[in-house]
Amino acid sequence: MGLGRSQKDLALESMRARKRGNDLLNEGKLEEAVCCYQHALQLFPRDADAHLNLGYVFSEQGLWPQARQALQQALTINPLLADAFYLLGVVSRAEGAIADAQASLEAAIRINPDLQVAYPELVQILVDTGQHGLAEQVLRQGVKQFAGDAHSRWMLGHFLFNQKNINEAITHLRSAVALMPDFPKAHESLGLALQARGTKSSLLEAVLSFRTAFSLGLQQATTYNCLGNALQLLGRHGEAIASYEMALSMQPASAAVLSNLGGAYLAKGELDAAISSHMKALQIQPDFADAYSNMLLVLNYHPDRSAAEIFAAYQAFNERFARPLRCEWSAHTNSRYKNRLLRLGYILPAFSAGSLRHFLEPLLAHHDKQVVDVYAYAEFDTSDQPTSLYRRYADHWLVSKEMSDQQLAQRIRADGIDVLVDLVGHTASNRLLVFARKPAPVSVAWLTGNGYTTGLTAIDYILTDRLSAPVGSEPLFSETPWRLPEGCFAAYRPALGMGDVSPLPATSRGFVTFGSFTRAVRLNHRTVHVWAEILRSVEHSRLVIDSTDFSDSEVQSAFLQKFAAYGIDSTRLDIGYHSPPWDLLRGVDIGLDCFPHNSGTTLFETLYMGVPYITLAGRPSVGLLGSAILTSLGRPEWIAHAEEDYVAKAVALAKDIVSLSTVRAGLRTELASSALMDEVGYSRRAESAFRSMWVNWCDAAGQIAVAQR
C-alpha cells in the first residue's frame, strides 16, 4: 500500500512539473520548459503527454533527433496519440524522411480526423511527391470534416486551380470567401482562377478579387502582376501599366513583370517604351526567350527601324537561344522513299480559334489523306474550342501543352514526322525552341505572326509567295523562301455571320468614311501623318479606327491627340472597339492599310465586306502583305509605293463615288472567285510544296550517305 501511495505522489508531482513546463512554453521560455518536462519524466517516465510536449519543444528548437526520440517514446506509451503522430510527421519531413512523414501524418488523421493542422502538412507532401490524386482525396475529406472552415475550402480550391480544374476551383474559392470575407489569400486565389477562365465577365470579377485582396492587406508583387495581366486581357492598358509598375516598386528585378509591362506598352502603341522594358527584362534574365521574342515583335512594328536592323536582331535571337541546342540534333532515320505518304506535323498554338483559324482551317480541311498523314500537336486543353475545329481534320492528335520543348521534340522525332510546320513565329506561347532541336528532317515556317522570318537557321523554309518575299529579299530571311506559284501566302475562309455587303455608305451620307480595323501598335507617327493628310484632302470625310486596343479610353485619347497635332478635329474620328465589327465595317467606304507593318486578317475581311483598301508596299514581308493580297485579287492599282502616292490613291478613290459604288457591289464576288479563297487549290499547292521540300531532303540525305561510304 505504501508503495502505491508513493507512485501516486510521484505521478502528481510529475503532473505539476509538466504543467509548469506548459506555462513556461506559453511564455516562450523553451529551455526552462525542457527542464520541467525532463524533471517530470524522471519522476514518472510513462507520462506520454510529457514526452509529447518535450518532443514539441525540441522540434521548435530544430533538434530533430531529440524530438523524434521523445515522440516515439510518447507513442510507445500511447499508440493512439494523434498529436504525437502529427509532430513526428513534421519532424520526419524536416529530416528529409518523406515516406515516414507521410505515414505519420496519415496515422494522425486516421486516429483523429478533427486534427485540422495535419491536413495541410500531408497535402504538401503528397503534392511535392506527385501524389495528386491522394492529395485531392485528403483535401476533400478536410472540406467534409470542417464544412464551415474557409481555409479548408481555400486549400481545395487552390489545389484544383493548380490542377486546371478551373470551374470547380472557382466554386470552392467563392465558398471560402463567403465563409470568411476578410481572407485575403482566398480573394487572391479566386482572382487567379477567374483570370484562368478567361471570359470577359470572369476577368472583371478577377480584377475585383485582386483589389479586394489588396484592401485586406495583401501586398505582393506577384499579385499586382496578376492584376496587370487581367487588366491587359480586358484591354485596360493604362491600368495594367500602373499595376505592373506597382509590382516593380516591390520587386524591381522581376524580368517577368518587365516583359509584361513591355506588352502593355506595345498595346498602347508606345514602341520605344516597350523595347526598353523587354531589354531590361533580358538584362536581368539573359535566357528569357519569351522576352526576346516579344522585343522582336515590337521591332517589326517600329516605323524607324530598317529591315536589315530588324533582321540582325532575329539573327541574334538564333545565336543566343537556338544555336546552342544544335548539340541535341541527331541524324533522322525517316525512310527516304520520295513518293510515300508524307507525315506532316502542325504545332497548333493556343490561339488557333482566333484569326489564324481563317487560314489554317481551309488547309487542314482539304488535305488529301492519300498524300499526307496529318499530325496535330495541340497547345491547348482538349475541352477548349479549337479541339472541335481541328481534331476532325487530324489523323493523329496529341495535347502538347504540358510538355517541355525537349519532350515535345522527342515525341515529334518518335512519331517520325517528315515535315513540321510552325504557325506563329515569335508570337505568344511559341514553340520555336522545339524547332531549334531539329526534330523533323524538314521544317517550315508559315504565317508566323503575319509572315516574317523566325530567325532560326534550324528552320529550312518559309512558305510564302513571290510578292511577300520578292526575289532579292533572301538576305532578310533565315529560312529559304518557298514561293507558291500563284495566289498569296494563304487561302482565306470568312467568319460565319458577317452578313451581306451593304450599298456604298457615301451615297446616302454625302461624305466618305475611311476605316482601319487594326491594332494600335500598327498606327505610328508615319501612318497618322498620312491619314491626317487624306482627311484634310477629302472634305467632310471621316475615319473609323476600331480594334480591341481602343476599348481603353487612355489609348483613344492618345490617338485623338496625335491627329489633333495635324489639325484633325475629334469630330471627324470614330475611335473605339466593337465585336464583331461587321456592322461598323459596313459603314466604311474605303479601307486604309497600315505601314510599315501591314494588317493581316482584317485586310481579307475588309475586301469580303466590299471595301477596297489602299496599301503602301514596304519592307519584306510584313510590309508587303497588303500588296500580295491585292495583286492576287487583280487590284494592283490600290498599291502605293510612296507615302505621297498613298495619299493620292486614297483621295482619287474617294472622289469617284460612282466607281467606288461599282467596286463595292462586285468586290466580294471578285474575292470569292480569286486564288485568295480557292481552298482546294491552295491545299494542293501547299502539299506540292511540302512534297518538293521532302524530295530535296531525300536527295541531300542520299548524297551525304554516298559521300560517307
The gist of it:
The chain has 32 helices and 13 strands. It has 709 residues and is an alpha/beta fold.
Question: Main attributes?
Answer:
13 strands, 709 residues, elongated, alpha/beta, six-stranded parallel β-sheet
Provide structural commentary:
The chain is α/β, with parallel strands linked by helices and 709 residues long. Helix content is 57%, strand content 8%. It contains 32 helices and 13 strands. Strands 3-2-1-4-5-6-7 form a seven-stranded parallel sheet, covered by helices on one side. A six-stranded parallel sheet has the order 10-9-8-11-12-13, with helices on both faces. The protein is elongated, with a radius of gyration of 33 Å. It starts with a helix and ends with a helix.
